[in-house]
Amino acid sequence: MQFGIFSVGDVTPDPTTGRTPTEGERIRAVMRIAEKAEEVGLDVFATGEHHNPPFVPSSPTTMLGYLAGRTERLVMSTATTLITTNDPVKIAEDFAMLQHLAGGRADLMLGRGNTGPVYPWFGQDIRQGIPLAVENYALLHRLWREDVVDWEGRFRTPLQGFTSTPRPLDGVPPFVWHGSIRSPEIAEQAAYYGDGFFANNIFWPKEHFQRLIGLYRRRYEHYGHGRADQAIVGLGGQVFMRRNSQDAVREFRPYFDNAPVYGGGPSLEDFSRETPLTVGSPEQVIERTLEFRESFGDYQRQLFLVDHAGLPLKTVLEQLDLLGEEVVPVLRREFAARRPAGVPDGPPTHDERKRALAQDGAHDEHDADKEGVK
Predict the structure, then answer these.
(1) DSSP code of 235?
(2) With contact defined as beta carbons under 8 Å apart, do 334 and 290 qualify?
(3) Phi-psi group of 170: left, alpha or beta (phi > 0 → left; psi -120 to 50 → alpha; rest → beta)
């Protein structure tokens, strides 16, 4: 099972000091946080994509390409790549390039984002969000699998004899997660292609996400990709830890109350009760995360949000030490012990997908030989 962190890259004043980092400071801090994730034994770093203040990650592949050169094991991923407002041709090119730079340690999570004005900024209509997501991914899927593409759709100019470069590393496209917090159409899309489904369950009660994940699992099996319990599921989570839970609550409260995402809404206690936010001791984080399996079934990737709301870099690095030393080792052991035989313990790696592609090719050649004999 993969464990990692994701960052939304917000530039938020520290409510305890009043100081706001510069954009440059925040970008460098995010990169240091990602490097620290590898140092403490985590598997994945994912960055969001935003094109408006107070967020800085407008170019995820630039950040991840830099990070790929400074790490050895960490999987480079995104917490959202905007399939609706990015050109699928550019996504195909950028992430194939990242694949090469990272030696296959790269995947991506497609989503529609949560900022309405981004649509007109990039010449699109938010009312077409779902059709854009469906059509753009259909093109992206082909661009990575066909050397020459002829294509015509509703939302971009046609392609005639187009080849996306570079080609995917080893002929294996990056693994794709479809991320959603509300849309059954995206769960259906993920199931249709046999891709991963990431339910970023950090805002709403679990019952909502149980319905989405249940739909994805049923449709994954319907389309013949495997049993429902073999579908590839990822989940989010927000944590803040101190060894004493009272210290954690006291220290985190001003950050929660002033956070750009949920500040001014429900109280910290209410939000912690209704969502996966866990503010407390490492033991409480372990217990809460293990409950996800009871709610959603066995799953393959767990990402934690740890660097938002103006938290100082020093504090975030301390969170990563606790994750790497006390939380994730226990979670790995417990999830592995509870996982039934035949259920994937993680999303497919680049090397696993490379071997599967080679085996499929061998089977195709064998079938062709038999046809020739006939």
Answers:
(1) E
(2) yes
(3) left
CA distances (Å), origin 50, targets 7, 9, 22, 86 = 11, 8, 17, 12
* Residue-level pLDDT at 208: 87
CA-nearest of 209, 207, 185, 206 to 198 is 209
Q: Which two tokens stand for residue 368?
A: 């062709």
Residues facing 324 on adjacent strands: none
pLDDT in tens, 271-297: 898 888 999 999 999 999 999 999 999
Phi-psi domain of 154 (left: phi exceeds 0; alpha: psi -120 through 50; beta: other)? alpha
Mean pLDDT within 33-60:
95
Report residue 192 as tokens: 């249709």
- Band of pLDDT at residue 373, cut at 50, 70 and 90: very low
- The count of other CB atoms within 10 Å of the CB of residue 284 is 17
**Cα 140 to the center of its chain, rounded Å:** 18
φ, ψ at 238 (rounded to 5°): -125, 130
Q: What is the DSSP code (8-state) at residue 339?
A: P
Q: How far apart are the first and last CA of the chain?
A: 46
Side-chain half-sphere CA neighbours of 144 within 13 A = 24
CA nearest neighbour of 145 among 195, 111, 185, 101: 195
How many angstroms separate the CA atoms of 194 and 272, rounded? 33
Mean pLDDT over 15-36 rounds to 97
Q: What angle do CA 197, 28, 264 make, to 5 degrees?
A: 65
| Closest to 180 in 3D by CA, of 106, 306, 277, 84 | 84
Spatial distance between the Cα atoms of 114 and 108, rounded to a whole number of angstroms: 17
Tokens of 237: 């989570």
Which residues, including other chains, have CB under 8 Å from residue 154's CB and lie 6 or more apart? 131, 135
Mean pLDDT, the chain, rounded, equals 93
Query: What CA–CA distance (Å, rounded) separates 155 from 145?
Result: 21
**Cα gap 302→304, rounded to integer Å:** 7
The two beta strands, 159-162 and 149-151, are antiparallel
At 191, the amino acid letter reads A
Residues 328-358: tens digit of each pLDDT = 999 999 999 999 999 999 999 999 999 998 8
